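REQUEST FORM: STRUCTURE PREDICTION
Request ID: SP-0412
Submitted by: Lab K.M.
Chain count: 1
Length (residues): 154
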Amino acid sequence: MLTLSQLRNFLIGMLMTTMPVTSVAADFTTPQGAVRALEEAYRNQDIEAAIATRDFREEARLLFLRSNPDKAADPESLRQGALIMEVLFREEFNQIAVPSYAALTCVLSEPVRVSESLVKVTERCQSPDGSWSEQNLYVFLGSQGWRVAGIVYE
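STATUS: Completed
RESULT:
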């Protein structure tokens, strides 16, 4: 008898093997490209490249929309929020086991529109031990192209 976790991993694996695998450039012209650029930065252990893939101002705005909507439109709150988000990201980046990230095989979903300039991309990754993880990444289209504006681990 399979456990619920084993069944989930099996089903995700089956879905992943039937999904077409397309090469997505690690750039900022598409939502998936921005996610690939972030993955590449992790694999290369390049924190500055990882920072370049992110839109911390938009991430702060999204957070404020949920917690304190008045601050979501305040430029100073957004500036401070973005600085805090970047500091937290830098700390997290330095704590992640990057070598294990390099061994992951990841597949990205098609973007799901959240708003005119925000989409959600689901990233499913398989570890060398066969286990699967799934993250939803919010990707924002701004003046610099597509940038990751938040990661929700599930």
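NOTES: The CA atoms of residues 41 and 48 lie 8 Å apart.
Reviewed by: T.R.
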